[in-house]
Design goal:
This is PH domain-containing protein. It comes from Psychrobacter aestuarii. By secondary structure, the chain is of the alpha+beta class. The chain has two domains: 109 residues, PH-domain like; 66 residues, no CATH class. Helix content is 45%, strand content 27%. It contains four helices and ten strands, in the order αβαββαββββββαβ. Strands 1-4-5-6 form a four-stranded antiparallel beta sheet, with helices on one face. Strands 9-8-7-10 form a four-stranded mixed beta sheet, covered by helices on one side. A two-stranded antiparallel ribbon has the order 2-3.
């Protein structure tokens, strides 16, 4: 009889769901995608036209390029602008899809690996060995390092900056203090 009780307790504990502290909607804003897509497509079109119609060289900031080198430069620029346009299109498509969510639990966080990633990562707070907050201009990011992975959470994917700050404060409370780097 005692062995039956001992065997049932772990089973019940395994089915117990951890309590959700807070859940945040996480997806890129539509205007980020449009802001990347439209200007980069215009610059790509201009670079392609320049590459196709260039018969003279180019002088860039005291650097003179021959006609052939100017064509290579124009095609390289067109390729770069096309890649930025593809990134903008990815942002725009994701802004219309069902949003991801960042879920904070008592002992873990579930979040996308990168701001435009579909892969969700589960990170236990005790496994975080480095937690840093970075700012580039008005863009703020939380970078969570574990022994195996890195999760990046950007404030641009939140509907409101105050939600990002709220989540940051909750995470700073939950993450072991040895890991914090602000």
């Amino acid at each position: 009889m005692d062995t039956e009780l001992l065997n049932k307790v772990p089973e019940q504990a395994a089915y117990r769901e951890e309590e959700i502290i807070k859940q945040y909607e996480y997806r890129p804003a539509k205007w980020y995608g449009v802001f990347c897509l439209v200007p980069s497509l215009a610059l790509c079109w201009t670079a392609v036209q320049d590459a196709l119609n260039n018969e003279a060289g180019v002088i860039l900031n005291h650097i003179s390029l021959s006609p052939n080198m100017a064509i290579y430069f124009a095609w390289g620029s067109a390729l770069l602008f096309f890649m930025v346009a593809c990134f903008g299109l990815t942002l725009l498509i994701q802004s219309f899809q069902k949003p991801h969510s960042i879920t904070l639990y008592d002992s873990k966080i579930i979040a996308p690996k990168r701001p435009i990633s579909n892969k969700l990562m589960t990170v236990r707070y005790q496994d975080i060995h480095k937690f840093e907050v970075t700012a580039v201009g008005k863009l703020h990011q939380i970078i969570i390092h574990t022994t195996m992975e890195k999760v990046v959470i950007s404030d641009m994917n939140f509907a409101d900056k105050s939600l990002f700050i709220e989540m940051l404060h909750t995470l700073m409370y939950k993450v072991p203090s040895r890991s914090l780097e602000v």
